[in-house]
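Our example copied in:
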Amino acid sequence: MKPRALEHQRGGDGGGGGERSEWKEKKKRRWRNEKRLGGKGGSLSLEAFANAKSNPSGYNPSIIKKQREFYRNAKFVKKYKKTLTQQGQPSDHKTIPDLEVPFSANSPEFVISSVVIEDGSSENVRKLSKKKKKQTLPSLEEEYKKKRAEQEKAKMEKELIIRAEEEARAKAESKRKDLRKKMFKKTRSGQPVMKYRIQHLLEGLVQKPNCNS
């Protein structure tokens, strides 16, 4: 009976010792945190605040943005090299892809098809671009003149149609006003003048057969 009782007592002491050590560890961590924050109060001490401001946190949005751009460009370069290897071209070639540059008075070439760093090839490219400029400029000028003439012709036709409609509208309006004035004319005794009314009726009868025919 004695050995079992001793073992049970030792086991109970071991469990209590574990809880005690865990409580001591929590207390120690709490004491360290309070010391780091400058005491038991809720606010930081002046020394802790100065240390916190002086130590950099490592967060910088501009650096993060530059890193993202660098990784994105590296991804594009990797993809470009992969496509070149798939096409059977070496990835470390010294040519720049085709560039289309608009024509200006200062630049001697109209379109630069490709720029090569090797000697001699760049001159040939510029000669080809000048020849292309000579061939394309007259055709572009003719096409522009043709489109301009078509636009001017369409504009003049539209103006003529609008002017004819305005003249017809003004003529109809003046005729309507004249007829209204005649219809409202009266004699000295206050009776309406039948002459204009009869004339209007006769004109209507003359116009009806013409419309039917």
About this structure: The radius of gyration is 50 Å. The mean pLDDT is 71. The first strand starts at residue 95 and ends at 96. The longest helix spans residues 121-183.
